[in-house]
């Protein structure tokens, strides 16, 4: 795939360039700030962008705002956002837009090469990829009514895997249950959360869950 990287840490940026090149991917540009990221995407749109949330000059939300702008200008470009911490406001702002081809990973996940590459491929393919810790904390963002309290332990496990962007087949493998059981639990989840009328597409399904949890 064709990738553009935006990361102000030279060490991490160069490490990602080398990793992606070794995996056979083409790195079109590797930049250190959001302005250069937007320029690079305009000059040669990639399949996917990997961007840090916090970049110069203020190290607050430059990367996130650039990611949102890329999604607005070029919805076909996947965006995988990296963050040092679980920043719920930023995650919610990104994920409550059109979530096809978006991801949010903690930087610690990058050192787990297989997981990072899997997330990158999912995002480049128009799917979703959310860090398990991000999902865990978003799942904790329930109000005093706590609708998740209606879910069984198995349904919570399926929901957590679903929110990370895994397909039913992948969830079945990860939880060691049948795919038909996953489908049964998924239907029960949407029924209990009042989301039964959501879209059939798997990435739209994830979006519906995250919209609900972020409300």
From TrEMBL:
Keywords linked to the UniProt accession:
DNA-binding, Phosphoprotein, Transcription, Transcription regulation
Among PROSITE patterns, the record links this protein to: HTH_LUXR_2 (PS50043), RESPONSE_REGULATORY (PS50110)
Q: Which SUPFAM superfamilies does the annotation name? A: C-terminal effector domain of the bipartite response regulators, CheY-like
Superkingdom in the source lineage = Bacteria
Q: What is this protein called?
A: Response regulator transcription factor
Read off the InterPro entries from this record.
CheY-like_superfamily, NreC/VraR/RcsB-like_REC, Sig_transdc_resp-reg_C-effctor, Sig_transdc_resp-reg_receiver, Tscrpt_reg_LuxR_C, WalR-like, WH-like_DNA-bd_sf
Indicate where the modification 4-aspartylphosphate is found in the sequence: 52
One family name in Pfam for this protein: GerE
Residues in HTH luxR-type domain copies? 144-215
> Which residue ranges does the record assign to the Response regulatory domain?
2-122
């Amino acid at each position: 795939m064709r990738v553009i990287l935006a990361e102000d840490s030279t060490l991490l940026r160069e490490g990602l360039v080398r990793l992606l090149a070794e995996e056979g991917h083409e790195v079109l540009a590797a930049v250190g700030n959001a302005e250069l990221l937007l320029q690079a995407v305009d000059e040669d749109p990639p399949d996917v962008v990997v961007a840090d949330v916090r970049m110069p000059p203020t190290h607050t939300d430059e990367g996130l705002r650039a990611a949102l702008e890329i999604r607005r200008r070029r919805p076909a470009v996947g965006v995988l956002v990296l963050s040092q911490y679980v920043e719920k406001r930023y995650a919610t702002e990104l994920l409550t837009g059109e979530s096809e081809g978006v991801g949010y990973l903690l930087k610690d996940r990058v050192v787990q090469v297989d997981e990072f590459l899997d997330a990158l491929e999912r995002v480049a393919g128009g799917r979703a990829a959310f860090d398990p810790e991000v999902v865990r904390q978003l799942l904790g963002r329930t109000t005093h009514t706590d609708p998740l309290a209606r879910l069984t332990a198995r349904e919570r496990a399926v929901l957590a895997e679903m929110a990370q962007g895994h397909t039913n087949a992948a969830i079945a493998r990860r939880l060691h249950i049948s795919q038909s059981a996953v489908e049964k639990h998924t239907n029960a989840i949407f029924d209990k959360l009042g989301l039964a009328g959501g879209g059939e597409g798997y990435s739209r399904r994830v979006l519906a869950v995250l919209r609900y949890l972020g409300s």
